[in-house]
Amino acid sequence: MSTKKKKKRLAWRKSAATRTASAFLLRFTTSEKAAFVSAADLCGLSLAAWVRERLRKVAAKELSDAGLPVPFLAPVGGS
User: Fold this and answer.
1) Domain assignment of residue 61, given as a range
2) Is 47 within 8 Å of 28 (Cβ atoms)?
3) pTM for the full predicted model
4) Which residues are within 8 A (CB) of 56 and not within 5 positions of it... i.e. 6 or more apart?
């Protein structure tokens, strides 16, 4: 009988390209969270994906409007 433990393989493990590097804790009022969950459901997204998508969109616009680079966007074209 072997006492060696098998490594568990996690099926939900994300690829390096889609893995998040850190967590960000947000606190919402009960009514804010309910509204955000409803909006996410309408889009067919999880709450986390919906919030991330909306934050990225607003951050990209505000940084671009200020003439600053948007770190999470890959440069288009170029040589």
Assistant:
1) 30-65
2) no
3) 0.65
4) 72
